[in-house]
Task: inverse folding
């Protein structure tokens, strides 16, 4: 039995953090986290991504010790942390609002954890100076938080989380209050620090682009359960569920019927007779109603001279409804023959006026990037 003052050995393996059968319920029987298993490797930058209410912040707060799991165990470094007080976990936390003390200077804010740990004064000064240098705030130690920009306050919060050499760092939407340009810059800075220090980072966000840019692996959460764990490339290009595919990035949805399945590929017939080859998941069977998903950058668009019909059975005729120029690419909205519409992104290497509004086009898809999901899964 754990007495709450020391930790018990759980297991020795490559997983630095391990959630085992973790559940979190609140009064009224509402499960925020339901029987969740998850492992994080030493030195990994893992992002918890999901919509509001998916349980990502709750999971982070349980790891920090600010919330207690209803059931299950949480281990760090092979030791049971489930009942260890927050101040004995040696975990750095960066909150969304930074939680800086307004009456303290920057140096006093950064050194707060060292004072709480009764670190000798001369050592405090040395470590605070090193932490501020690490986040590129040399010379700012005498200032108050009110005298800093949003990005500088974020750096102070990060320095405070790093100053006592934590075993891992938890970040709960730390960039959400920053404007886009500063946010992009801080993403680079956080990755620089992660790589330089070899930190283990668990990062919470609802921003898909942020997760794709920064993570070694992404955990996609939905309704307190894990939908998929994988690299940014896997999660984006090989989404494990309809939810993941539609939540991360932009995607087109096309309805059809699965006519044939063989060796991980299928042939789908659309209502207008067009037949498309696509990727399918295990367990999918012929005559099943499906929804095809394809990213805009994987849609290929060809012009049709004089509005002539397409000769190939795997090409979908359409007409350009909207054309937006973004500099490096065109974004086209195309009304298809089946009555729906698709979005395509066309790379622009030189001025090209052939995709004007009203232009007759033919759309085709790359089978490796076209995936079918069961219609009933998509409805959930």
Result:
């Amino acid at each position: 039995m754990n007495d709450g003052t020391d930790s018990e050995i759980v297991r020795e393996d490559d997983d630095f953090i391990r959630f085992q059968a973790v559940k979190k319920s609140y009064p009224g029987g509402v499960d925020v986290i339901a029987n969740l298993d998850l492992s994080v490797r030493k030195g990994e930058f893992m992002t918890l991504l999901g919509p509001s209410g998916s349980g990502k912040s709750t999971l982070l707060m349980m790891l920090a010790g600010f919330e207690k799991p209803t059931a299950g165990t949480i281990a760090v470094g092979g030791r049971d942390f489930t009942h260890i007080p927050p101040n004995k976990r040696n975990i750095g936390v960066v909150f969304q609002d930074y939680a800086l003390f307004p009456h303290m200077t920057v140096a006093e804010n950064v050194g707060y954890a060292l004072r709480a740990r009764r670190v000798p004064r001369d050592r405090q000064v040395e470590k605070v100076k090193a932490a501020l240098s690490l986040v590129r705030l040399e010379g700012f130690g005498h200032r108050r938080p009110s005298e800093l920009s949003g990005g500088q306050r974020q750096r102070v919060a990060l320095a405070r989380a790093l100053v006592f050499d934590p075993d891992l760092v938890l970040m709960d939407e730390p960039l959400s209050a920053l404007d886009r340009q500063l946010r992009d810059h801080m993403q680079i800075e956080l990755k620089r620090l992660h790589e330089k220090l070899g930190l283990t980072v668990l990062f919470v966000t609802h921003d898909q682009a942020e997760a794709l840019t920064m993570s070694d692996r992404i955990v996609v959460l939905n309704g307190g359960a894990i939908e998929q764990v994988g690299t940014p490339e896997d999660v984006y290009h090989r989404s494990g569920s309809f939810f993941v595919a539609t939540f991360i990035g932009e995607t087109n949805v096309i309805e059809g019927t699965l006519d044939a399945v063989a060796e991980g590929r299928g042939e789908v017939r659309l209502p207008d007779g067009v037949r498309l080859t696509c990727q399918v998941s295990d367990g999918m069977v012929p005559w099943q109603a499906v929804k095809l998903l394809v990213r805009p950058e994987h849609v290929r668009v060809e012009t049709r001279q004089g509005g002539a019909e397409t000769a190939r059975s795997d090409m979908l005729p359409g007409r350009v409804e909207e054309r937006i120029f973004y500099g490096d690419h065109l974004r086209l909205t195309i009304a298809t023959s089946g009555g729906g519409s698709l979005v395509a992104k066309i790379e622009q290497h030189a001025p090209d006026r052939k995709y004007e509004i009203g232009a007759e086009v033919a759309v085709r898809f790359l089978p490796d990037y076209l995936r079918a999901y069961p219609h009933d899964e998509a409805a959930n």
About this structure: The first helix runs from residue 56 to 64. The CA atoms of residues 227 and 244 lie 7 Å apart.
